[in-house]
Amino acid sequence: MMTKHKSIPQGYMTVGEVAKKIGITVRTLQYYDKEGLLPPSAGSEGGRRLYTDKDLVTLHQIMSLKSLGFSLNDIKRHLISLETPVDVANALTEQADGIRRKIEQLTASLIAIEQLKAEVLQMQTVNFKKYADIIVNLQMKNDSYYLIKRFDDDTLDHIRNQFDKVSGLNFMDRFNRLSDEIVQLQKDSVPPESEKCQQIVKEYWGLIMEFTDGDMSMLPKLIEIGNIDTATNAWEERQKIVNDYLNPALQVYFSKLGVNPFEGVEQ
């Protein structure tokens, strides 16, 4: 053992000494050597890999760049050998852009987590299927998670079977657009029996039929889901206005049609 130590020339360090000095593992140094990122400057008579002070400087560069989020591949390919300040600035600009994108993604995730936490506490029951649907809606920046949390498992299963991501978003866009139009009619005090109102009611009822796929047994459940006594958020406030305005308008609509879609349906 003593002979091996004596065989190491002055100014050189073993892999263990470098690891201890820099505060990384021997395995990491061996990996950098294997990848051609930091090969030792020399070898001892006993076959040990030896490093110099210059290798320590390069290792410090590697670790600094790695801490900024550069991949080892990027560092190996060009960063260590960049020659002009402009080259370095371009590489840093590219990395900064990537970090900004990650920050945006993480910020969106953090907002989604906080919103989901609030929803979970309101729901009072553990339901991972529903949580998953809410998360998907948060990721799509869609307010329909306020609606989803009111659905039971059967209705959610129906939605999953009835809609994919694209058709689901399209449906919600049409639903929200119609709801906004109905709120405007209410603000303008347009009477329920007017042609303008009845045309909107026809579209609204068409959406309900599309949602249920003609399954009339879903109607009582939808009425229960849509029944909002006290609104707790902007979505529910809007829906309460829609419901209050639509009820008499729907009665006029069904009366003109001469049908009662709720007849024979258990409520």
Task: Describe what this molecule looks like in 3D.
It is built from 13 helices and 3 strands. 69% of the residues lie in helices and 3% in strands. The chain has helices at residues 2-6, 15-22, 26-34, 53-67, 72-79, 85-123, 128-139, 145-148, 153-162, 165-187, 195-212, 219-226, 234-257, and strands at 13-14, 42-43, 49-51. The model has no long low-confidence stretch (mean pLDDT 81). It has a 3-stranded antiparallel beta sheet with strand order 1-3-2. With 267 residues, it is an all-alpha fold.
Give the arrangement of secondary structure elements.
Layout (H helix, E strand, L loop, with lengths): L1 H5 L6 E2 H8 L3 H9 L7 E2 L5 E3 L1 H15 L4 H8 L5 H39 L4 H12 L5 H4 L4 H10 L2 H23 L7 H18 L6 H8 L7 H24 L10
Antiparallel strand pairs: 1-3, 2-3
Helix pairs in contact: 6-7, 10-11, 10-13, 11-13
H/E order of the elements?
HEHHEEHHHHHHHHHH
Mean pLDDT: 81
Distance between the ends = 89 Å
Find the structural class using helix and strand composition.
mainly alpha
Percent helix among the residues? 55-70%
Beta-strand segment tally? 3
Largest sheet: 3 strands, antiparallel
Question: Nutshell version of this structure?
Answer:
With 267 residues, the chain is mainly alpha-helical. It has 13 helices and 3 strands. The mean pLDDT is 81.
Features:
267 residues, 3 strands, 69% helix, 13 helices, mainly alpha, single chain
